[in-house]
Design a protein that fits this description.
mainly alpha; 77% helix
């Protein structure tokens, strides 16, 4: 019985404590509410501006701006650039997460610093955890801000481009208010994300261009998306009665070209097409020119090998290693150009430029080696011909002088 009474008394104490806490919380809430109300009244007395009038004025100004832009034809968004609202939302979420991590990490870090006077091991753990949270928070904030800035710029691009299918990058950068190099990187990112689904960046007669449709991109290319040789190959495949059958080497490269040589030439031609495609994505004019030179020299080499199949062995290394590696280097260069120019990226780009230049010079040497055997044969044939002409008395000026002497006699 005594235990039960003690239990009841305990419950009564808990009830009383709960009531007291509730009353205290209510009083605090009322005080906070009254304080906020007083501050609001003070602000209202200090700033005697009617919010309703301000709202009406802002609405009217917005309508005037919209009407003006519509009259100028500038408010129409491009149908070729999609909305960036999803990117903006993602950036906002990352920004919020970063702020929360900072708010949580800073107290942990502060607790770790305070714990240095109590327990060193415990303090190290807290400091490490706090630093990690703060570092992750800062990284998320930077990433979130970057996404929001990207969305803001592409939104401007969408508005400024309008109905145009092609626009000069430097003019667009001026309209948007961003440096050309930074805008190019953002445009590449927008194309990769599918925000500009049919977008391409290349070079026209006036400079670097943004093409927003496949039709505009194809019309700007001298040979479409493929080289003349590859287009001819594709046409021959379509004309074939059996599209899946292997084309006859004699029809493709001419009579006397064995199947293995034809396969070798096909592999090289595929690499040449890939090099040309990668060159269109490179912003550096010098590197782009080097890649185009590599493609042209390789085309000439392949043409010579097709006419002289016995020289095919000299391009096996080019087919299996040099050309595929050139494709990889060109694609990597175009990708690295889009990133911020840090010391590691700058050093790598310089090495790639030097390597591509070496490849270009090596192709000139390979071309000379291919015709070397033919030159030796020609020199041998010319020497034999001169010898026979001399033996038959048909080669020199002496024959004509003898004829003249006989005429005088």
């Amino acid at each position: 019985m005594t235990d039960r009474n003690q239990s009841d008394n305990g419950y009564d104490d808990l009830e009383d404590a709960a009531k007291e806490m509730g009353d205290a919380f209510g009083r605090v809430s009322e005080e906070i509410g009254q304080t906020i109300s007083d501050v609001a009244d003070d602000l209202n007395d200090t700033f005697s501006i009617e919010l309703s009038d301000l709202s009406k004025a802002m609405s009217k100004a917005g309508e005037d701006v919209t009407r003006t832009l519509s009259g100028l034809g500038l408010s129409k968004n491009s149908p070729y650039v999609l909305s960036t609202s999803k990117v903006t939302t993602n950036g906002g979420v990352l920004l919020l997460l970063g702020v929360l991590l900072l708010l949580f990490g800073l107290p942990v870090l502060f607790s770790g610093l305070v714990s240095l006077f109590v327990s060193l091991s415990y303090a190290i753990i807290l400091c490490a955890a706090g630093l990690a949270l703060c570092a992750l928070g800062v990284a998320l904030i930077r990433r979130g801000n970057g996404l929001r800035e990207f969305a803001r710029v592409i939104k401007k691009v969408r508005r400024k481009v309008g109905s145009r299918q092609a626009v000069l990058v430097r003019d667009l950068a001026t309209e948007v208010g961003v440096a050309s190099s930074k805008l190019v990187a953002m445009l590449h990112d927008a194309i990769d994300r599918g925000i500009i689904p049919n977008g391409h960046i290349g070079y026209g007669q006036s400079g670097q261009m943004l093409y927003l449709t496949d039709a505009a991109w194809m019309s700007a290319q001298p040979y479409g998306s493929k080289s003349p040789a590859s287009s001819q190959t594709a046409a021959s495949k379509e004309a074939s009665p059996d599209a899946g059958a292997k084309p006859d080497a004699s029809k493709k490269y001419g009579p006397g070209v064995p199947e293995d040589v034809a396969e070798l030439l096909d592999e090289c031609q595929d690499s040449v097409d890939a090099i040309r495609t990668a060159a269109l994505k490179v912003s550096d004019l010098e590197v782009r020119s080097t890649l185009e030179s590599i493609a042209k020299k390789t085309d000439k080499i392949l043409g010579y090998v097709a006419r002289h199949p016995k020289t095919a062995s000299k391009i096996k290394h080019a087919s299996s290693y040099y050309l595929p590696t050139t494709v990889k280097l060109a694609s990597s260069y175009a990708e690295l150009e889009r990133h911020s120019a840090g010391p590691e990226v700058t050093s790598t780009l310089a090495e790639v430029r030097d390597t591509l230049s070496m490849m270009d010079k090596s192709l000139s040497k390979l071309s000379d080696e291919l015709v070397q055997g033919q030159s030796i044969d020609l020199k041998s044939d010319m020497k034999v011909m001169r010898t026979m002409l001399n033996q038959d008395g048909l080669s020199g000026e002496d024959d004509f002088s003898d004829g003249d002497d006989q005429g005088n006699k």
